[in-house]
Every structure is written in structure tokens, then in C-alpha cells.
Amino acid sequence: MRWPDLLPVRMARVAVVAPAESLRDALARVADAGVVEPDPGPPKREGGGGPGPAVLPFAPDPRWLAERSRPDVVEGEAWLEEHAAAAVRKGHVAAVVGWMPRAAHAGLAARLAEVGAALVRLPHPRGVEAPTLLRGEDRKDSLRGSLVPLVETYGPVPYADLDPTPLAWAAYVLMFGIMFGDAGHGLMLLALAAALAAGRPRPLARWRRAWPFVLGAGAAGTVFGVLYGEFFGPTHVVPRLWLSPLDSPVELMVFAVGLGAALLAGAYVLGIVNRWREGGWSAALYEPSGISGASVFLGLGAAAGGLHLHRAVLAVAGAAVAVLGLVLAFTGFLARSGGGGAGAVEAGVELFDLVVRLGANVVSFARLAAFGLTHAALAAVVWTGTAALWRHGGVMQVLAAALFVLGTEVTFALEALVAGVQALRLEYYELFSRLFNAQGRPFRPWHIRMTAEEVDAPCPRA
Q1: What's the CA gap between 104 and 150, in Å, rounded?
Q2: What is the pLDDT of residues 189-217, one digit of tens each?
Q3: CB within 10 Å: which end of the chain, N or C, has fewer?
């Protein structure tokens, strides 16, 4: 993965500059391109529930509009007039300022040149945050675009921050697989992902964008099912390559907490980068989601590991790093509270809360093991009941088959829902809370389709 893939789409501050008499035609091409967010722009007009507004390449004659009865073009012209009224004018030149993706600059500039207009790059205003467009967000049918809702649902990503979409997807499906570890159930999810990707059956077409999540969850569930030796329960169809959740709950719990610690460490790394990009080294150093919090987290972890392994050097070094992190965090809290006695008390309370939350965050990942155990237990109950009925032969085998099918459906639906929600909960509350300190502003380009009717039936220009 390349570094630019972890950044939102790079934006540019631009001005659409045109002779006053050509401003309308330039704005029509800007609207059709749909890559510019005008600033400040007129108030948003409410749609009428029809096909939406449309514009013609050139201003139509009002009599032509009346004869053709084109409310969509009338509405589009009203939009253009409002944006033209908000333009900055000097002499015979007018300009509309806004934001757009840098990659779209050349294409729009070529279209504007057709009507004698130009697209001018402006410096980024100091203290003004650019709107955020995550990679793939404008191509919702693409693979990256299908993953964007995982991050968007949490909130708009600040423009200065990293875009964690692919990493967040990987962490999500990994946690889901631990809780949903059954090769049979995982294969069912893979079949569902194939159906979603194909848009079949038709009622599933509305959920088509979810296929990468279902595919990743199915693959992770299948892998952990093989590791657990689970295939629709303890059927012994697949060999156990690692451990059985029901036989080794403590080992699974330790693994879940260790994995959670690793994920939190990764979140701290990304959080430090975000704090540096947002406010420089001071923010990266003193913010609890930056170096100070990471030092406390890693120091306490190293100290606990040293005590457990009876390694005095590791324990002392970890304690020293943790104390350094606490000092940095206290300094940041004290500066934010304004100093003084009351500020010191407030900083002390926040420092205590930081330590408590760190412990709670790590322990929270134990739910991966807990729900993995629940999944295995439910599947074992279904399989045990099925096997018991099957041994009686005759009609009891029919009941056994019915129990297996119904029990599998209930277990699959219930555990898929629980695992999906719990993985999302861990993603947002434990990981994203370290990545993001604030919310950004989503990129909302202005778009009005340009109708080709003038090509088929030319209309008089105004």
C-alpha cells in the first residue's frame, strides 16, 4: 500500500474566472462536471421530486423554454443565476471561488476554455480547512468506494488526517472472524458475498455495496473455523489446526487481549501521525491520543510483561516510559485547563481517567474470545442434538435434519449480527477514538446534469 493511499483526495482552492457575459456558460460546464464545491455559494434549493434540474450548454431563449415546457431546465437556470449572483465581479470579469480535487483540474480547465473562461489555482487560505473526499467515495461501485461507509459512519474525516479505510476494513473482518470462527458458516458468507457482487437475487441488489465486507468476513470466519476445527460445529469434518474455543477458553482470551493490544498500538501510531498533521509536534507530543498516551500504554504493557516474566530490566524500563508519558499527558492537560490550582486538579483527574480507560480499552477486546466461545457453544448444541436424534434412525433422522437446518440458520443469523455489531463497536470506540480528535467537513460538489437536447433539437440562444 502506497503512502498516498492513506490520505484523502488532495484538494485545490480554485477560482472560475470568466468574462461577465460568459459566466453563465462557464458555470453550466462547472455544474455538469460535478467536481467543484462553490464557496460560499447560494442556499441549497429543494428538489421537486422529479428528474432533477438540468442545464443547456448555452443560455436558452425564454420563449423556447415556454414552448417546450421544461421545468428541469428552468430549475437549472435558476441554480445558475443564484451562483452567478454570488460571484465576485471586477469590471467586465467575474469569478466564483471554491474547492475541487486536484486531479480534476486539467479536465475542467479544458472545458472552460471552450467558452473563454479559465480555472485559476489559488493558495490554500490559512486557518481554513479544505473539505474531505475519501478515496473511492465518488466511485461508490468501486472496491474502495464500497469500504468508505465504514469510516464515514463514524464521522467526516478531517482533511489533514489519514484515511484509514483499508486498514479499518482489515481490522474489522479480522475481529469478526475471531468471533465467527466456523468454516461452514464462513463458506455461507462467501456464497452470500458472491450473490451480492452479482446482484442476485434481485432483492439483495440494494445491498450490493456490502459485498467486500461479507467477503472479508466470510474468509476470516473460514480461516478461524479451520484453526478452531469448527465446521457447522464440532463435526470433525476439518482438522483442528490451533485450539478449540470450548476446550481452551483461557488461551483464546489471552490471544484476544493480545490482539487488542496490537491493534491499539497501531491506532496510536496513526493517531500520532494525525496529531502531527493537525497541530505539529506539540499536538503529537502532549495529546493523550499522541505520544504521551502511546508512552503510557506501551510503558504499562512493558512493565506488566516484565513483572510476569520476572525481567527486572524490562519492568523498570517500561515503568520509566509510562512515567514519562504521564508527565507529558499531565503537561498537556494542565496547559489546556489554564493552569493554577484548579487546573492542576482537573489535569490530575483527566490523568487518572486516561490510565483507567487504557486498561478498560485493552480488556474490552476480551469480548472477541467471549463471543467466539458463544458461537462455538451454540454450534455445539445444534450438532449434539442433531447427532443424538440421528442415532435413533427412522423418522428421528428427518427431525435431526430439520434441527440441523433450523439450528444452523438461527445460529448463523444471530452470531453474524452479534459479531458484526461487536466488531463495529471495537472499531469505533477503541480504535477510531485514537485516530480522530475532531470531525472534518465532507466535500459536497455542485452538480447539475447537462442535457444533450440542444444537439438533437437546437434551441435559440438568449
Answers
A1: 26
A2: 999 999 998 887 777 778 888 999 999 99
A3: N
SS3 (DSSP) at 206? helix
Radius of gyration of the chain, Cα coordinates, nearest whole angstrom: 29
> Other CB atoms closer than 10 Å to residue 317's CB: what's the count?
15
pLDDT in tens, 139-155: 877 888 899 999 999 99
What is the DSSP secondary structure assignment for residue 37, as one 8-state letter? E
| Closest to 223 (Cα-Cα) out of 273, 181, 272 | 181
Burial (CB count <10 Å: 0-12, 13-18, 19+), residue 252: buried
User: Mean pLDDT across the stretch 267-272?
Assistant: 96
Looking at 61-75, 247-261, 384-398, which range is the least confident one?
61-75
Cα 235-175-442 angle, rounded to 5 deg: 145
DSSP, collapsed to helix, strand or coil, labels residue 120 as: strand
Whole-number pLDDT of residue 184? 95
Confirm if 135 and 165 have CB atoms less than 8 A apart. yes
Distance, CA of 323 to CA of 72 (rounded, Å): 66
444-455: string of b/e by CB count within 10 Å (b at 16+)? ebbebebbebee
Bridge partners (DSSP) of residue 90 are 93
Report residue 457's pLDDT band, with 50, 70 and 90 as the boundaries. very low
Q: How far apart are CA 275 and CA 66, in angstroms?
A: 57
| pLDDT, position 455 | 41
12 - beta bridge partners? 100
pLDDT at 78 over 80: yes
- CA dihedral (249, 251, 252, 254) positive or negative: positive
* Distance (Å, whole) CA 393 – CA 391: 5
d(CA 378, CA 361): 27
Q: Which residue has the cell 520509566?
A: 320
Question: Where residue 4 falls among pLDDT bands split at 50, 70, 90?
Answer: low
CB 48 within 8 A of CB 75: yes
Give the pLDDT confidence score for residue 456 in this predicted structure: 44
Question: 3-state DSSP call for residue 331?
Answer: helix
**Short-list 438, 305, 296, CA closest to 353:** 296
pTM score, two decimals? 0.90
> Contact at 8 Å (CB) between 68 and 130?
no
Please list, residue by residue across 61-74, b when 16 or more beta carbons sit within 10 angstroms of its beta carbon and e when fewer do. eeebbeeeebebbb
DSSP string, 285-302: HHSTTTHHHHHHHHHHHH
pLDDT tens profile 330-369: 999 999 888 888 889 999 999 999 999 999 999 999 999 9
